Automatic annotation (TrEMBL):
The keyword Oxidoreductase applies. Keywords: Amino-acid biosynthesis, Cytoplasm, NADP, Oxidoreductase, Proline biosynthesis. The keyword Chaperone does not apply. InterPro entries: 6-PGluconate_DH-like_C_sf, NAD(P)-bd_dom_sf, P5C_Rdtase_cat_N, P5CR_dimer, Pyrroline-COOH_reductase. Gene3D superfamilies: NAD(P)-binding Rossmann-like Domain, ProC C-terminal domain-like. Residues 167-270 form the Pyrroline-5-carboxylate reductase dimerisation domain. Catalyzes the reduction of 1-pyrroline-5-carboxylate (PCA) to L-proline. It comes from Arthrobacter wenxiniae. This is Pyrroline-5-carboxylate reductase. GO terms for molecular function: pyrroline-5-carboxylate reductase activity. NADPH binds at N62. Coiled coil: none annotated. GO terms for cellular component: cytoplasm.
Length: 278
């Protein structure tokens, strides 16, 4: 399989993936990136040493980028994925692996917009890829073999933990790890607001909440970390933490989190249906 890699669209998530890929040893000269604006293309070329093309200036930018590529990463918004697939379909190498990072775009939608037999992988990365602590779930299409899947893993290995799941689990992954960073940020917001109500200045409240959530996350990242064991380690019998956890339980916080995750998964399924036919 060709070592050439094409990134079609390279926003903040795409650039995080690109950064991890290059840090893992992929040479910049093996990567071609396409974006709309020439200013963004120049920025990516200067920052990473890759070839960057602006589709607003070069109408064949996407087609030229995928020519001879062994892996093609689709990084545009979900509403534009099907049109992009149709644009590049005839220019793709027959064995090139097409990887979509677009939420809610199904494998059958991707495969339907490409030539029959084109290997396609659907991915669900999350924003902590930007700091090398992401998680990525991959679902293989009907034409994907172990070599194609290994190539997809290599794209993300430098940015976080990568695992394989059946496609029917993608909505659940989206609800937990895809949306999950926002849940952690929301918790930090709520903690900062509570700190201010307890009389702390806003600046101190924000630092306390932010650094506490970030530090707890680092503890969870330790090998063998167990969430329940870590929680118990902070929760002394009849102490202050136990009193807070008791209130969280009695007011139904676990149920609220479950309900929110179910709503997120349901919305992901709705978006998939909305995108059919685009």
């Amino acid at each position: 399989m060709s070592k050439k890699i094409a990134f079609l669209g390279c926003g903040s998530m795409g650039e995080a993936i690109l950064t991890g890929l290059l840090a893992a040893g992929t040479p910049p000269q093996a990567v071609t990136v396409t974006v709309r604006r020439p200013e963004r293309a120049e920025e990516l070329a200067q920052a990473h040493g890759v070839t960057a093309l602006a589709s607003n200036e070069e109408g064949r930018a996407n087609i030229d980028a995928v020519a001879g590529a062994g892996v093609v990463l689709l990084g545009v918004k979900p509403v534009g994925i099907a049109a992009l697939c149709r644009e590049i379909a005839d220019a793709l190498e027959p064995g090139a692996v097409v990887i979509s990072v677009a939420a809610a775009v199904s494998l059958d939608q991707l495969e339907g917009a490409l030539r029959p037999g084109q290997p396609v992988v659907r991915s669900m990365p999350n924003t902590p890829l930007k700091v090398g602590r992401g998680v990525v779930a991959l679902s293989a299409g009907s034409a994907v073999d172990e070599h194609h899947l290994a190539a997809a893993h290599e794209i993300f290995d430098g940015s976080g933990v990568v695992f394989d799941i059946p496609e029917e689990q993608q909505d659940a992954v989206s609800a937990i790890s895809g949306s999950g960073p926002a849940y952690a940020f929301y918790l930090a917001e709520a903690m900062a607001a509570a700190a201010q109500e307890l009389g702390l200045p806003a600046g101190i409240a924000q630092v306390l909440a932010r650094e506490t959530v970030a530090g707890a996350g680092l503890m969870l990242a330790e090998p063998g970390a167990d969430t329940a064991a870590l929680r118990r380690g902070v929760t002394s019998p009849n102490g202050t933490t136990e009193r807070a956890i008791d209130i969280f339980d009695r007011q139904g916080l676990p149920g609220i989190v479950r309900a929110g995750a179910k709503a997120a998964a349901a919305r992901a399924a709705e978006i998939t249906e909305e995108l059919r036919g685009t």
